[in-house]
Amino acid sequence: MVMMTDSELSAVLARFPDLRMGVLGDFALDCYWDMDESASVPSLETGKPTRPVSRQRYAGGGAANVAANLAGLGCRKVSAFGVVGEDPLGAELLRMLNTFGVECRGVQKQEQDWDTIAYVKPHRDMVEQNRIDFGDFNRIHDETADRMISCLEPVLPDLDALVINVQARSGIHSPRLRQRLSALIESRPEGIFVVDSREPGMLYEGCALKINDREAMRVCGLSPVPDAGSSRESTLVAAERMYAERGRPVFITRGAEGMVVCDGEGVSEIPPIVLEGEVDPTGAGDGALAGIAAALASGSAPVQAAVIGTLAAAVCVRQLRRTGVATPESMRGMLEYADDFFRRRGKKGDE
Length: 351
Known about the structure:
Helices cover about 40% and strands about 25% of the residues. The protein is α/β, with parallel strands linked by helices. The chain has one domain (about 5-35, about 55-350): UDP-N-acetylmuramoyl-L-alanine:D-glutamate ligase.
């Protein structure tokens, strides 16, 4: 089991303001609509009751939330490479990225065959209702993929790391984009690339890998198991297999069970931070990915990067009904909370 001291965390965070990070992936918008049917009236056109929205909030999802977290962690520059549609949701997504200072020249607009990826989450009495999704029928054009890579290629040597997000069912990672991006990665063996993918065919060789335990077991052909002990053992096996195949660090998130990391030094386990009160897992993986990538780019060892990712994820899940963003201050606060938790747990174990 691994954690870190306050001085070690401060040393890592102190290096973040020098970082220039890139994020390429499925940029999405999370839309939170609070419904209040006390104001509902029959529609004059249909006679059906209206569904009034009392408040609306928007936050980055997918690659956009990764970029927001990198900016929140204090990285000097964050550059985005993705696609939005010529629609109001795309305009809101770009506006939101701009508020975080994310550089968006690499974000391409595609007018045809592309709706900005968005997840509308209506809430009634603080409970999320059926989600409304935009972008499930998208098709990225080869010309759009080429423009994106053309924006990335000249700036890639100046980036300290490139984060690759694969999330949407109909996202940007077409055969054309995968071919050109893979060639860029291969051309820079000394570069730091971190991929987060739910699709086995889009794990991109030459990259450190962040993946959750369920997907890791699926990729490795391991059967999911119900009890925590067996799940832990399967996760350790999956981490070793994937590192042996890829030769790059592998980070497997386990939700409330912590994280497993495997590199040339072997397998390490990062303990979970048990949080009191209500939590919201939305965006936790994005926070973990941003923390891992920034730490690796700053020269941290994979085990230390996994701790940073765990702290960032814990910060994010405390931010309810929105995708969370970690900051250096919140990371220090979470480490203090974690230290107190492990201290109390240790004392109870001694009783």
